[in-house]
Amino acid sequence: MEPYELSVQQTHELLVNREISAEELMRAYLERIQRLDPKVKSYVTVTEENAIEQARDADQRIKMGEGLTPLTGIPYAAKDSLSTRGIPTTCSSKILENYKPFYDCTAIRKLKSTGAVLLGKNNMDEFGMGSSTENSGFFTTRNPWNFDHVPGGSSGGSAAAVAAGLAPFTLGEDTGGSVRHPASFCGVTGLKTTYGRVSRYGLLPLVSSFDTIGPMARSAYDVALVLEAIAGHDPKDSTSRIESIQPYSEILRKTENLRGLRIGIPKEYFVEGLDAEMEAALRAAIRQIESLGARAVEVSLPHTQYAIPVYYLILFAEASSNLAKYDGVRFGLSERNVDSLLDVYLKTREMGFGAETKRRIMLGTFALSAGYYDAYYLKAQKVRTLIRRDFEKAFETCDALITPVAPTTAFRIGEKISNPLDMYLADVFVVAVNLAGIPALSVPCGISNGLPIGMQIMGPHLSEEMLLRIGYTYQSQTDWHTKHPPCWND
Amino acid sequence: MKYEPVIGLEVHAELLTKSKMFCGCEVVDSITAKPNRTICPTCTGQPGALPVLNRKAVELAVRVGLALECEIHTESIFARKNYFYPDLPKGYQISQYDQPLATDGKIRIETEVSPRRHGDAGPKDVRIRRVHLEEDTGKLSHADGYSFIDYNRSGVPLLEIVTEPDLSSPEEVKAYASKLRAILRYLDVNSGDMEKGVIRFEANVSVRAAGSDQFNTRTEIKNLNSFRALTLGTEYEIKRQSEIYERGGTVEQETLGFNDATGKTYSQRGKESAHDYRYFPEPDIPPLVLEQSWIDSIRASLPELPEAKTSRFIEQYELKPQEARLLTSEKALADYFEGVVSKSKSPAKTVSSWIAGEFMRYLNDLSIDVTNIPLPAEDFAKLIDMVTDKTISGNSGKVVLGEMFRNGGKAEEIVKAKNLAQVSDAGFIQETVAKILNDNPKEVEQYLAGKESILQWLMGQVARATKGKADPTVARELLVKSLEAKRK
Question: Would you tell me which of A140, A185, B112, B377 could form a disulfide with A152, CB atoms 3.0–4.6 Å apart?
Fold first, then answer.
């Protein structure tokens, strides 16, 4: 078996048994990236030198047997919206093409301390604005299952890298489905964490009140290993949760069934427009979960239909403010061949931002303007409260909810890019989770026409442990997560 | 027609915290520190950096809110004020907007001359509309065709204190500003160091026909960074607006700058180009929730404030209101006064007049801040006592005080070294008196001719000849005696 075929857990065993060194492992991944990534295009930066050096450090750690963790020597990649010290962090935007942060994101810092080794940074929709990576300022990532299709977004590069064996795990970021959506399109397991469970310090923000960092990997178990390493309170993030984290992987090892769990099936998520094969795959998955001891009941989330407009309104508003710092004054692109300060701003932003980003900044600026604030931003926040209450009510009668992740499997490149509204609607099943701040896990549960289907498991705040248990037991009974795309053996 | 001004003030005061408002960077002197010495990802707006609220800044803000008799809100919200400028690294300033920390307070002011409505004389309460926390911006400078940005000041905690339009003259504006500064210093929340820009003013000015109740269009004067600028700026603006109405014109709503050199205001931007700051709640900072018990403990720790101290001084030390107000204008001065009184055997009134007189003159002449008085209270007390018990004369006392200010040392030692001890020995003084009368026959004649006021001049001659050591009572007695003897 080649190193890239192994899970995090299996790789760890090889490393501690000294059957492979971290450096060899790293070189194998780098070689594979060099060979295959020109087709997949999941990386915007590969940090070869850094990676080899850190792999050697990990080997030293393994040799001494000191400070060993399940991630020591394990390569990984991160969405390019996570700050990496001295390594370009671009959000796939031209405005940050040459930007190298002088500090590490907390999640990256934590992984560094476990001995995990950064391979590089993954492509994404510019600043996370999109569901296909077609809005990347650099290039479009291909779906490893079919290069003519999108990998989903916005963490498309991170999902494609895992699916194509270009990294054993990655860190994605989910603002409105950006982990779950590409995870389902690429057939990998992705966790959208509870808002505040993983520090946002060093995460380049899209929507500060929705952004969450979450792991993407080949199994719920691997996701649990990564979550253990990156979650927890961070005094540098005032919105991070103070509750202590749980020994997620240990809990999974002890889990055999799902007896006693009540699974809600929200009727608003199984409606017209949902692909028939997809619905069949989901129903089969739900039956599988019932066979593990859980009981499924229908529930209602009556305000679901408002999730898309509410989500996008708040997104436009916050994003317009969050992106103001890209002004050409301190870092990134700076158009200096101009006559006035105003021109520095205008030219830099004109040249640096892509069309979708500009559209959203304008919409957000409008929505926050005097006289419109109450009608748009404030009203959106009120409806957000209603949506959050829907979930609270549902969780009074059931432990978790199961829904599709997207209405269809991965669409073709170019299919939706000319119609922004159509693209926004691709997020219909994922954004409510962000409005409520709750966690949700996306696990592969079928294949249709050669493209993966994803199942979304949602739970109340801080219920990551339960979501992973459901995913883990499901995966122990099924093999969808072990299916590989055609390029796997390339 | 006669016009009366309607003025409201917005004051920005830096809070004396060790670290900045939202990061751990040290707060340094923004004038003397090397540029960009204390900066980090957060205060330079690096992508992904996040703000974490400084607890001390909140505590100091609550202190001010309580001292200004405001309602302190147990829940307040930070908001983003969005605009573009190079000294604002994030593209927005974190401030408070529709839910500030404190509202509805007041400050009592007194002015010497003040046009009061309805002939109402005496102190006046200026209503405080709101007190809120926000962060300072960086500092821009321009030279050789380049612009430079120093982010040392970026993120330093600021308190914004906004009045209702209750001020009706530049004198009241000045009185309010001085009083506020004194309170901030009393509370130890601001250094009051105006030259360093730790307190900055913005005035909203309009004028209306005297006695009218209506509010006319107002202008906002920015960058008033000294009491002088504040007074001149409001004076100029009142005159400018009055003249416009006099001519039958209309005042435009606009934002004005103030030119320190010319003493004039000038237009910065009109109503059409007014900023739309697109305020919305800062998602990176959860609502600020304060425990009532914490607020109560801060209230319990508040020092005695100028108002209360003045009343106490008048009563306890039998001072005149004017004296008491001078002594309580600064907490450090009031504390010093009480320190001297407690160490001195002389009456408090005597101590008060020493401080109000020579002492203040030295502080001003030598530009010594009252928080930094070089003279231990005990030593000053001793000096005053030496004058009171006539060990030295009042004039010698002034000389000794000057010496203590310039070179330090204790009063007794200086008196000894300079041989200033007062001499009451009639023999020694008589010698001098005889010599003076001998040397000044013309003046003696004048005295004898009935011009008794010349006695004071002769006293001065004796004091000069004895270098102030002669006990004036004895000297006067001997002078009169010798002069009367000549009459015979």
Answer: A185
